[in-house]
Every structure is written in C-alpha cells, then in structure tokens.
C-alpha cells in the first residue's frame, strides 16, 4: 500500500493542516512577543494552557502591585466587565463633610444601640443591627433622610440587589430629582444632578453618558461596595474583640479615657483613638473581606516587572496575599495592632503592604468616608458593650472564603453592657 493512501491530498485536509499550522505559528509568535508570568496548573502536551478560557495575571507581591496601581496606573486603569456584571449594571463600570458624616453615624447608632440593649447579657448575633447602621448612613449621605428601622424596604435591600436598584435606589433617585433645587444642595444625588445640568448647559450633549441610569448605577455601586464591605469589616472586628479580650480591654480603656461614657465618639476624638483605629486596621488585614478587590484590565501593551502583558489582559491584585505575606509582616498570623503605631503611640505611616482600599487612580472612592465611619461605629460598640464568646464556645474568626469575598461565619456572641 502506498503512502498516498494514508495521506489523502483533498482541499479540506490541506486546509485543516494549514489552519493548524497557522494557529500554532500565531501562538508561537505571540508567546515569543509577550513574556507572560509563569502559569500554575497542568499544561497539556503541545496545547500547553491554550485550553484555558481566559489568561489572567494575578499579582501577589507589593512592589508589583504598586507598579500596577500607582506607577503604571493608566495602563491598568480599565475595569474588567464580564457578562454577569454587564447584565446588572448596563455596562456602567464600578467606577461629604465631616459634621454631616458624624451626624448620620450618631443618628443610626442611637437607634440601633437602643434596640441592641434588649439583647444584653444573652447570646446575640448583631448582624442585622450592623447592616442597619451602615445602610442607614449611606442612605442619608446619598439621599438625605433615614430608614425606618427594619423596614420591609430595608430587608429587601439586603436580599435582592437587582430589585434594590430598580425599586429602592431608582425610586429614591426619581423622588429627589423632582424636588431638586440647584441653590439648595442636600446630598450626593443633588450634586450629581447639578453636575449633569451644568454640563448640559455649557456643552450640550457632551456629557450624554451621565444619564439617569448612570447616576442610579453610581449610587448602587456605593451601596453594593459600601454596605457589604463595611458590614463584614465590623462583624469581623467584633469577632476579633471577642477572641482577643486583652486587646478589647486596652481599646476600651483608651475610649473611656478619651471620650468618656456620657457621649458617643466623634470625629474630633479620632487623633486620640489611635490604638482603637489600629485594632480596626489589623482586623481589616487579618480578615481581608475583599481578597481580590476590583479586577483591572490593561488598556495597552505594558509590563509588570520583567513580564510583558498584552492589551486587554485581566489583572488581579491579590490583597489576601499582600496582607499575609511573611516577607512584609512580622509574625504575620498574629493579631498585633501595635504594628500600625509609632513610638509615641500614634498612628504611623500606613504599612506598605496594607491596601484594603487599593491605591492609585482606581483607589476606592469611599475610603475617606469609610475609614472614619468604621472607626466611629466600632468605637461606639466597644464603648457600650463588652463582647465575648458564648459560654463553653470558642469564637471562630476564620472566614467563609470565596474569590470575591471573605465572609464572617454566622455565630452568636455574648454582649455585656458597660454603660
């Protein structure tokens, strides 16, 4: 039998061979052009990792993370929009004054603390009350007014994100839009409406992207990011206090000395509540509620260190790795608030590898509200209550892990009134 019998020379066969050869050549040239970081997992013979659905770069060290977030932030400024995100946001990317914030925090706390007092000295999970405090504050800053405690609308906000955007945030926005007055700005939504109005007056349709949908989604972004991360951060912080009673007692001594027991902590107390804020920072490091943050995507061909990265590549900053890097943290698994303090007991410069809010052009826009807000809530909860494990139980501070979030495990704590 001749060789030709085994290798028919039909046009289809020739075309297939040419296609395979062309694809292999393209892959080889692309591989030579881009010096990708090493890949984990199993590589198949000849195909390598070509079977993978999407090449994604994960950054685990702080120097490379700062190169992405700060030094070359423009190159990595795009956000990765996957179909599920686009469905919920219509393609809109996840892209206030001190007295007003303090007023909102105190108003929410007074309502919640009065309700929480009824659970003192008994096993109690404060999750609903923390959700209320955080949601109430954000609603007030965005729209003015406040929630009715444990209202059906607020419970719906916790359970149905999509319905919230349409029924809760959308309705609130259109109500506020009807009463908008450019010389009486009341809250964030008024400022967004004014920005669009002034742009339309001066530039016509130049700011056509700032539609009602975009404004509603901007507010929804604030709620989804602000409520989830803040409530989980506070829940972890209380679990840590129950797990480390000596650290809790030291923070409470500072709060008693600086604030006393006759009023709620205020923003003016913040410089003197350094240890309490350091406790919160260490809880945020240990827990890392958003382990991968918001994913980036390269806007152009660029590089990370010695590796070349093509345009359109998803890039993930592994905040969990940064916060648990033994090369960056002394006694990395130990809960040590002192690592954030200087020799005078004041908050020192932010540790290089502490990035719960990200950095650079894509830093979390809520950082400058979230940090003082979280401190006031946390200090108020420590001022009023002593937190401990249920009798004959151990506090479980390990998170329920997922790629997008670390969630505190549901459990009850013992809450003892101090004041």
Which structural class do the helices and strands define?
Answer: alpha+beta
Helix content: 40-55%
Number of continuous helical runs: 13
Q: Report the sheet with the most strands, covering strand number, pairing sense and barrel closure.
A: 4 strands, mixed
Helices and strands, in N-to-C order?
A: HEHEHHEHHHHHHHEEEEHHEEEE
Q: Can you tell me the residue ranges where pLDDT is under 50 for at least 5 consecutive residues?
A: 1-7, 82-96
CATH architecture: Orthogonal Bundle
Task: Give the count of structural domains.
Answer: 1
CATH class: Mainly Alpha
User: What topology, given as strand order, has the largest sheet?
Assistant: 1-7-4-2
How many angstroms separate the termini?
98 Å
Q: Cα-atom Rg, whole angstroms?
A: 26 Å
Give me the count of strands: 11
Going by CATH, what is the homologous superfamily?
Cytochrome P450
Morphology call: globular
Plain-language structure description:
There is one protein chain. This protein is α+β, with helices and mostly antiparallel strands and 419 residues long. The protein has a single domain, classed as Cytochrome P450 (Cytochrome p450), CATH 1.10.630.10. Helix content is 48%, strand content 8%. The chain is built from 13 helices and 11 strands. The strands form 4 sheets. It has a 4-stranded mixed sheet with strand order 1-7-4-2. The protein has a 3-stranded antiparallel sheet with strand order 3-11-8. α9 (212-243) packs across α10. It comes from Mya arenaria.
In short:
With about 425 residues, the protein is α+β, with helices and mostly antiparallel strands.
